[in-house]
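Incident log, support desk, overnight shift.

02:14 A customer reports that sequence design results differ from what the structure should imply. Their input is reproduced verbatim below. On-call engineer (initials T.W.) acknowledged and began investigating.
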């Protein structure tokens, strides 16, 4: 399982996305930026910043090392 915690990119944000694949986590994060933050264009640099912060988690949601 993969997870992105938006607080790792946007201080104070608590939104999270979890999915089996990195691609789905990125899709959900981009959708969130568009729908809830009013972004109309999400630049490739932002997508890369999101990808850099995606971590593996176990079934309990604990980050794997």
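02:41 Re-run completed on a clean worker. Output:
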């Amino acid at each position: 399982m993969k997870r992105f915690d938006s607080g790792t990119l946007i201080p104070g944000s608590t939104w999270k996305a979890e999915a089996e694949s990195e691609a789905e986590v990125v899709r959900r994060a981009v959708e969130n930026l568009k729908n809830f933050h009013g972004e109309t264009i999400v630049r490739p640099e932002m997508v890369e910043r999101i990808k850099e912060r995606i971590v593996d988690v176990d079934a309990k949601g604990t980050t794997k090392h």
